[in-house]
Every structure is written in structure tokens, then in C-alpha cells.
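Researcher: Go.
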Amino acid sequence: MNKLCIVVLLITCSITANTQFSLEVNAGVERAFVHLKFFKYLDKNNRWSFYSGNNAAVNFDKGKPKFISSNVFAYNFKNGVGISTILIARKNGLHPSAGLLFQKTIRSFYFYFLSTIEPNNIAEQENYVYLVYKHKLSNRIKLVFHNENYISFKKWGYDQSLQRIKVGLETRQMQIGIISETSQTEKSFQTILVNLGFYIKKSF
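Model: Structure:
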């Protein structure tokens, strides 16, 4: 319970008047999830930032919901390179780590890369890659393409990789579209999830 209180406190402290946040709901053939994100720059130069991503998902074949909260405190240099500390909360406890990141926006493209390692165990290493492209179709509507890749090597869980592709339309900070998720696990990276469905996302 004390660990849960720490996570709740971190999320609560990040919610201020200038915080950007979004809510996404996804429903596919294999599973459904809800993803709540918070992001805030902590200084005038937009160097220090705090991010909190909270995901609740349920696989239809198992019926048991899973929750994970990823909290990232980062500092970015002018060239896009940055350093970060991360706290991940899930069913098996809290997992602090540190990492290097790179993010860049070039016109309609946004690229983000984060590589982390737990200081207490060098075998626990994670990598995140995001690519977002938005194309303006009219004054009110944009085409959105989102590609997300995740791969981990850790002892507190199975080695795992995840690929997520979303294609949709955005208007007035609302997105709606289709989503494809595939996931592999263990040393052979056997495919354990193929999830096709729809998503809706609202940004505030």
C-alpha cells in the first residue's frame, strides 16, 4: 500500500494548470486498454520535464486486468539528447532505473528514443522508440501515423517486445482510428499477441 501511495503522489504532483494530458481508449479482438498520460515542462527553457504514463489493460482470454505506471523525470540539452530517471510501478513492485533519451521534432515528424537500465541489476534493460507523423488534410483535420516499439531484457519479468501501429484522423485534439499490436516474449520471442482494433484519444 505504501508503494501505491508513492505512485499516486507522483501523479498528483504532476497535475497542475499547465500540465498536458491525454486519455486513450483502445478495444481490439484480443484485449482492451485505457491509457492516461501526463506531461509537464518544469522550467521556462523547457529543459526539465516530467512524464507519467498509466496503463490499465485486460486480455479477454485471461480476464484479469493489469496496471503499469511509468514515470520519467528528464533533462534535455539543446541538441535533443537528454538524461532521465524512471520509476515503473507494476504488480510485482517498484522498479527505478536511469537512462539516456533523444527526442526531435522536424516539421510534421516527432521522434523519441529512451534506453534505460536498472542500477541494481545490469541485466534489466529496456528500450522505447516512438515515431509520430501528422499530415494536414484541411484546416481542421490531420492524418496521424504513430509507430511504437518496445523491447526489454529483465529478470523481474520475461524478455518482451511490443510493436504498436496506429493510423487515424485528428480534429480538435481528438483522434480516432485503427490500431495493430503484436507482442513477443521469452528468448525465442514467440508471438503471444496479435491485436487489431479501434482507438479513440482525447488530448487536453
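Model: The first strand starts at residue 20 and ends at 28.
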